[in-house]
Amino acid sequence: MTLQIQLHSLGFPRIGAQRELKFALEAYWRGEASLATLKAQGARLRRLHWARQAGLDFWPVGDFSFYDHVLDMGLTLGHVPERFAGVALDPLDTAFRVARGRTAPTARGPHGAPLPDAPAAEMTKWFDTNYHCIVPEFHAGTTFELDASRLVEQLVEARQVAAETCPPVEGRPQPRPVILGPVSYLALGKSKDGSDRLALLERLLPVYTRLLQTLADRGVHWVQVDEPILATELGADWKHAFQTAYHQLKACPVKLLLTTYFGPLRDNLHLAVNLPVAGLHLDAVRGREDLQPLLNLWPKHKVLSLGVVDGRNVWKTDLNATLDWLEPVAERLEGALGGQLWLAPSCSLLHVPVDLDTETDLDSEVKPWLAFAQQKLQELQVLGQALREGRAAVAAALQANQAACQARRTSARVHHPVVRDAVHEALGAAVSSTRWGQRQSPHAVRAQVQAQQLQLPLYPTTTIGSFPQTLAIRQARSEHKAGRLSDAAYQALMAAEIERAVREQEALGLDVLVHGEAERNDMVEYFGEQLEGFAISRFGWVQSYGSRCVKPPILFGDIRRPQAMTVAWTRLAQSFTHKPMKGMLTGPVTLLNWSFVRDDQPRADTCLQLALAVRDEVLDLERAGVRIIQIDEAALREGLPLRQADWPAYLRWAVDAFRVAANGVADATQIHTHMCYSEFNDILPAIAELDADVITIETSRSDMELLQAFEHFDYPNQIGPGVYDIHSPRVPTQAQIEQLMRKAAERIPAERLWVNPDCGLKTRQWAEVIPALRHMVAAAQALRQAH
Ligand code: GLN
Ligand code: ZN
């Protein structure tokens, strides 16, 4: 019996190769385009995306989303927060209201009345990716009701596209609906009344059953059910929920492909293998360790799907190396009666950019090493053909691939001896205790030296770094990029913006000033552009949430800092004031976590290289007379591994990297760090180990409750708890700020408190920033007087 090899994908990027979906959404939300126009644009993108997947045996259907797939699943399950229910709207407008608290101004409620705003649903990270999904809200009384219309409509659409574009002789791709499984849906949500989410499973399963039945009635054979939660640690109750769910769903007349991704199944392997489903997808890139144990247990009647192409990164797959381990697996399955092996990317391609071919300016040595979504699907085709017909059938493709992989492995830009030596030297047994990671004196001593030097008042005021990125700044940047504005003219404009930011801060009476970051397009890309070892794409956009995209730089090789990156701008800013000017850097962990990172060495090693580059910049700033240096680590928490068991190892090297970057300075130099989130409980020991003199954090929305954790932990260094939410255009009053700071002072001694906003101000207008900061400075003055 020969083995049947089939190719498929778990999902395709939705945003469009040129971010078409982003622009269509934003036009609709501004009221400039109709809902019909937006929907037509969505249909056009789906059609394009299926066409790009023409060579596959199955097409995902329902992976496309106008905002978020978890939210879509909620609508399919008739489950939206109560504050949004009861208004008869187009489901898409309902989705936008849930996600954004509002929809387009043209969307009207019953009798044409404008819709009131309501608090948007929360977002959370989609597992360990930089994609954010909407958090389903549950309470004891939550009910569900099937609305299969989205999936059914897109199924019809996909069949039509298949019929039009794929010749019948070759066998057309089979459209296969994608849904989020019931257990992951519950796990991603939050109970609003303390009730047990799992108790809802009983009510949820009949709706899933009806959905599968509805799809079966429409002629669907296979349904992809995503249960990524299987790659995380599961308690006994959650494991039990899997049993209950899939034993109940097995009665449905469709075959289920249970998909897991983002990591190994480890102790959930037995559970996953034995669930009564027709097929199982395993992430064979991150979860390769599961493969042998899995094959030993494999029930021969099931379809095994292996995710062999990395859906989380942009590197070309080493096809020969993949075949080296894949061929024996195929041979083993071949013995099985009617054995089936499916190949796919490891996870949905949502997390990579669309098409490398659009990159005309990308570093020409690096470009051939890369594969975006489109290229990854081509790799899949080569692998499929090699397994079906032997490697000789695809000899040319394999050879080209080998040449590219070999070039990458041996490139002098990937392996730089000078960097290797520096890393070697810094890599002591324990970085944090060597001169590389250790400040000269403990914080209590440093604090006195710094107080002497800086002469700051009690409750010193500062901001987090960026000031409004005005239209003028953004236009100058794009004109400069397009070559229509000379370097000198661009620099002069940025200098003028920096001067303006400093003058405004002087006038406001802030104590520690910033230059405002006018010259930075993005806090990671700005450094990526200046460091050797990074390449910058033009269209390498990846969805972060809704219409928001990020363009992660591509970290391909050993990191070197050819010259100082921020010293000149900081000096310039300092020249406009006698107040201390903060140097402003992005930390190594954030540079790492917000980039596509090389996969040929451990992330920890790459992070240390970044740390050494940032360290050199810190020391250059110090030499230039900068007395306060802020090193942002906005993404430290984001890098936490999926499984808590893996947290300590990550935190160890992440903290070490920060310490290497920051701690080479003299006692008199004050190190700040900034983290814009409000969950610290579980990582506070690591945060304390960073040993930054001052940490500024987001706290305004949690009403300073967050400081309780710092208090209980006896956090020893100084803290700037954010006093106002920079995400909102609302200007806080002086009284509100004073009240928040008084609450803060109940938990943290006033001598250790700073006064600052939650985060940078780049998305705000000057007209909002000035009154807000005026109130903040006035509040600090009032607090000092009252002290
Ligand atoms: N210094 C950066 C800014 O103010 C920090 C941004 C961030 O933490 N996300 O914009
Ligand atoms: Zn921030």
UniProtKB/TrEMBL annotation:
Per the database record, which ranges form the Cobalamin-independent methionine synthase MetE C-terminal/archaeal domain?
460-781
Q: Which residues bind Zn(2+) 1?
A: H674, C676, E698, C759
Q: What is its EC number?
A: 2.1.1.14
Q: Where on this chain does L-methionine bind?
A: I464, G465, S466, E517, D632
- Catalyses which reaction? 5-methyltetrahydropteroyltri-L-glutamate + L-homocysteine = tetrahydropteroyltri-L-glutamate + L-methionine
Keyword Methyltransferase: yes or no? yes
What the record notes about the co-factor is:
Binds 1 zinc ion per subunit.
Residues annotated as binding 5-methyltetrahydropteroyltri-L-glutamate are: R19, E20, L21, K22, K125, N130, R548, C549, W594, E638
Tell me yes or no: is Zinc among this UniProt entry's keywords.
yes
Q: Which residues bind Zn(2+)?
A: H674, C676, E698, C759
Q: Name one Pfam family in it.
A: Meth_synt_1
**UniProt cross-references to CDD domains, sorted A to Z:** CIMS_C_terminal_like (cd03311), CIMS_N_terminal_like (cd03312)
Listed GO biological process terms: methionine biosynthetic process; methylation
Question: Catalytic positions?
Answer: H727 (proton donor)
Q: Which GO terms describe its molecular function?
A: 5-methyltetrahydropteroyltriglutamate-homocysteine S-methyltransferase activity; zinc ion binding
The protein's required cofactors = Zn(2+)
Domain Cobalamin-independent methionine synthase MetE N-terminal: where? 8-332
Task: Provide the alphabetized UniProt keywords.
Answer: Amino-acid biosynthesis, Metal-binding, Methionine biosynthesis, Methyltransferase, Repeat, Transferase, Zinc
InterPro entries cross-referenced by the UniProt entry: Cbl-indep_Met_Synth_N, Cobalamin-indep_Met_synthase, Met_Synth_C/arc, UROD/MetE-like_sf
* Pathway entry: Amino-acid biosynthesis; L-methionine biosynthesis via de novo pathway; L-methionine from L-homocysteine (MetE route): step 1/1
- Detail which positions bind L-homocysteine: I464, G465, S466, E517, D632
Summary of the function given for this chain in its UniProt record: Catalyzes the transfer of a methyl group from 5-methyltetrahydrofolate to homocysteine resulting in methionine formation.
Q: Which family does it belong to?
A: Belongs to the vitamin-B12 independent methionine synthase family.
Q: What is this protein called?
A: 5-methyltetrahydropteroyltriglutamate--homocysteine methyltransferase
Query: To which species is this protein native?
Result: Aquabacterium lacunae
Gene behind this protein: metE
